[in-house]
Amino acid sequence: MGLPVLHSVSPQMHNAALKAAGLNGVYLPFPVRDATEFLRRMVHPRTREMDWNIRGVSVTAPYKSTVIDALDWIEPTAAELGAINTIVVEGDQLRGYNTDILAFIQTLVASFGELPNARCAVMGAGGAARAVIWGLKQTTTNVTVFGRNELQAKTLARELEVDYRSFSEARFDEFDLVINATTLGTAGELESQTPARAAQLAGARLACDLVYNPEETLFLREARAAGCQTLGGLPMLVRQAIAQFKLWTGIEAGEKGHVAGCPTSISSKYEVTIGKSSGTNPERYSRQILFKGIRPEGTPGWGHPGPARWCRAFRPLPQNLGAPGGGNLPSGNRNSFNRQTSKGKQVSRKKTPPKYF
Question: Which residues are catalytic?
Answer without folding.
Answer: 64
